[in-house]
Structure formats: C-alpha cells, structure tokens
Amino acid sequence: MCSDGELIGQYCQNSGLTHSRTLLSMVESLLKNLCLSVSDMDIVAVSHGPGSFTGVRIGVSAAKGLAWGADKLVCGVSTLEAMAYQTPEQGVLLCPVMDARRSQVYNALFEWRDETLVRLCADRAISLDDLAKELNPAKPNPILNIPNAHVYLIGDGATISYEHLSAAGISCRIAPRLMRYQTAYGVALAAMRAEPIPPADLKPIYLRPSQAERESGARTTV
User: Fold this and answer.
1) For the structural domain made of 19-79+182-221, what CATH number should be given?
2) pLDDT one-digit tens code per residue, 85-141
3) What residues have CB less than 8 Å from 47, skipping those under 6 apart?
4) Which helix (H) or strand (E) holds 8?
5) Is there a smaller number of Cβ atoms within 10 Å at the N or the C end of the chain?
6) pTM to 2 decimals?
7) What pLDDT does residue 6 have?
8) What are phi and psi of 14, to 5 degrees?
9) Nearest 10 degrees: CA dihedral of 206, 11, 94, 92?
10) 172 in helix, strand or coil?
C-alpha cells in the first residue's frame, strides 16, 4: 500500500494449507509481480492477534524476520480492528467476530463517524450469549452510540453469530464473502494509524490461554 492509502497489491489464498507453508512464498510472489522488494517497504505490518495461536505466532514471526532482514520497523495491529477498517459501512455497528470455539467469539465493536473509525470497546473473548445481551436493543448500552442500528457482522464467526443474534431478536446482517474475512488491505489501513516499533518489541496478542496452557494449569491445581 502507498503512503496515500492506495492499494497496489494483495494476495489472498484459501487452500487449506498452513501459513508456515504458504506465507513467505506468497510474499515473494506478490513482490516479484509488483517489481518490488522488502527493502522498498517503509514498514512491515501484521495482525498480531487475536486469532489462532499457531497462525498468530507464524504471522508475527514472519513479520519480525522480514523487518530484521531489511532493517525496517514493524507495526502490529488488532485483527479485529483491521477487519473494521476494510469495511467502510456508515450508519451500522461494525461487529467483527472470529470463532473462538466453545460458544465464544473474539470480538470488538466499532463505528464510522464521518471518515474516522471509532473503537467502542476493547478486543475481548466473549460468549455469544453475553454478546447478544450487550447488543439487545431493549436494553440501551452506553457504549453504543447508534440506537437500533443494524449489527454488521464481519469474520469467520459471522454465520454462527448471525444465527445466535437473530434468534435473540437483534437486527443484523453478514458482510459479503469477499469482505467478510481479514485482509492485508485492512491490516495496512490500520497500520497507517498506528505507531511503528522495532521488530524486537513486536509481540503476539492472545485474549485467553492456549489449550496447552489451560491443560497445564489444570494439572498443576489437581
């Protein structure tokens, strides 16, 4: 992406292969097709969470490696915020939802006010029941500034969230498939409004312990 926000290239792939097998080859192919190299970049941006533990680690590690090798700064952004940035829908409550399993989603709430994306709550892991209670139009919530607005669902948790919220009487709709999942474009837009940092300072952001950590804790307390 150019400094003025113009998209010059993006590579998306949904092959079922892991990031560790595809990510760097995709970067190499995209840069080659654009006749660019990593050294031509100003910063390296990455979504540093929330997301799958393995996927977030791979993405953060790849970004740090590329930045270190080219002596560049990095910028880590919220995956949820990046999805909101790629969705320029006015007059709706933007509700990124990523399937976190166990009837939970990773979620945050946003709205556009003129040309500015406004965050309404922090990233969190929240149950579908609690999300439905929070968005219930019959119970005004002080953080929601758009009364009775349509809830606009983005992310791989959109379908399960739609079913749950609709059953609770909440007006919502799902983003079109091409805009539903996180993209490099959204990450770049979010990074343009964030502070670059040295690669050593970039850390993955997890909103809850991994399964291994939960199981280890359970064994410790027995």
Assistant:
1) 3.30.420.40
2) 999 988 899 999 999 998 999 999 999 998 899 999 999 999 999 999 999 877 766
3) 56, 59, 76, 77, 78, 79, 82, 182, 187
4) none
5) C
6) 0.89
7) 82
8) -130, 75
9) 180
10) strand
First vs last Cα of the chain: how many Å apart? 52
DSSP string, 188-214: HHHHTTS--B-GGG-----SS--HHHH
What is the distance between the alpha carbons of residues 85 and 95, in angstroms, rounded to a whole number? 12
Helix (H, G, I), strand (E, B) or coil at 92: coil
Sequence-ordered list of residues with C-beta below 8 angstroms from that of 92, at least 6 positions apart, any chain = 111, 146, 149, 150, 151, 152
> Which of 135, 61, 148, 59 is closest to 97 using CA atoms?
135
Domain boundaries, the chain: 19-79+182-221, 87-180
Where does residue 148 rank: exposed (0-12), middle (13-18), buried (19+ CB within 10 A)?
A: exposed
What tokens does 196 get? 């670059």
* Structure token pair of residue 95: 């509700």
Q: Do domains 19-79+182-221 and 87-180 have the same CATH topology?
A: yes
Pick the CATH number of 87-180 from 3.40.50.10860, 3.40.50.300, 3.30.420.40, 3.40.50.670: 3.30.420.40
